[in-house]
Amino acid sequence: MDGKKDPNFVTALARGLELMRCYGDAAEYLGNAELAARTGIPRPTVSRLTATLTQLGYLIYVPHLERYRLGPRVLGLGYRYLASEGVSNIARPFMQELADATDCFIALGVAECTQMTYTQTCQGPGPLIMRMGTGSRVPMAYTAIGRAFLAALPADQRRTYCELIQRDDPSAWPHIERALDRADREYEQYGFCVAESEWTRDVSGVGVPLLLENGRRVVAFNCSGSSLRLSYQILTENLGPRLRAMVAQVRELIEGGDDRG
Q: With helix as H, strand as E and coil as C, how does 10-65 read?
């Protein structure tokens, strides 16, 4: 496609996207010279583009290799597309059924930098506790959905997200790290993570990840409501197991009965 004649065509954006398309299964780490050779973009321009993409989180610089790899913002875009086009359509009826049965807020979320973005939400029949919908964002570190996402990630991807979280709020990192360690133990024991009145004191909830493509892709669900009625016992003995069962149903439909999560 020749966009140069279109006055609406943004060459810098097109070039940045072209750089990211260079990455694939056989090209996980690429330097400026390699990117310039693959795209035909002048190396000084490539250097400016990679610096910008790194600042925005779309690339990560690996000093000992002197090369770049794709960053979590790119993963977030992929997860959002996956959820919006596939998982959310399959999950919605199950989510609404659970929302109606528990009078809770049920959401599907994908990661974007240090936040989780809701790509599908369902409300129970009672008064609204959370006025959030598709496109709303919540912090990864302080929510059950975010902790469930982190707990299910491969170690290298988890490390990347934790580094970003620590960079964003270094003073709170010791507290966050302890909370994430606790969430890991919960996930190992129960298959879900809990957050009680942490991001906001009025809301508590549980989160369950959904592993796709043999664990290479992760999205997450939450079930939350008023902290006044959702005690830790209710979260761990009632809502957590019900959300876990719902996610298992969704996974079974996506994978054609092959329960590999």
A: CHHHHHHHHHHCCCECCECCECHHHHHHHHCCCHHHHHHHHHHHHHHCCEEEECCC
